[in-house]
Amino acid sequence: MHxxxxxxxxxxxxxxxxxxxxxxxxxVLALGDVVRVQGKLKRSTWSNAVEVTISNVVLVTDPxxxxxxxxxxxxxxxxVYLSTPxxxxxxxxxxxxxxxxAFTVLRKAGLCHLEDADNDVYCFVxxxxxxxxxxxxxxxxxxxxxxxxxxxxxxxxxxxxEGETSVSHLVSKVVQLKLFRxxxxxxxxxxxxELSKANVLSATGTQISIK
Length: 211
Known about the structure:
There is one protein chain. Helix content is 33%, strand content 30%. The longest helix has 19 residues, at 63-81. By secondary structure, it is an alpha+beta fold. It is elongated and about 70 Å long. A 4-stranded mixed sheet has the order 1-2-4-3, with no helix packed on it. It has helices spanning 63-81, 94-108, 127-139, 167-175, 185-197, and strands at residues 2-10, 15-23, 35-43, 50-59, 112-116, 121-124, 144-146, 157-159, 164-166, 201-204, 207-210. InterPro entries: NA-bd_OB-fold, NA-bd_OB_tRNA, RFA2-like.
């Protein structure tokens, strides 16, 4: 005895209904399975929608096959489905200029380093790691940290009288740095949260202190 089973397939470019004849006691595909499908694409006899009648379906167990599929989907999107295909951007274009400016800011902030000049390879530092020395220097109680002139808008000495400070106060201190003044306050707060998760800082409510 055979039964008709319908599935919804998402290949990354859209969804399509699949129709498959299954044995009554046979193995039925499960939701979320990654499969390779062979079949016939046609209009449904019940509606005007397009459907695929499956002739063969194989479960995909090689993760590389899935990765290659998504690369192909991306290629098809850019070359076939995109209404305005990507074009070469001249060096003088405003967006390229803005990108170069942002790249320079990242390098000055210590978030980006040239790793291989011959192959033009750069490595990027996560924001929490870049902020850690500044944040720890700010929070450390009864300590004085004289920041380098190049890092600040003016000569500033950070003095913390207590060994604990609020997250909002810490964010306001970090954003005063010339290196980080362009960053979103939410990004800085998120970096502080990551340092707390990494046990660099100790968070109690809205208060932060050194571990």
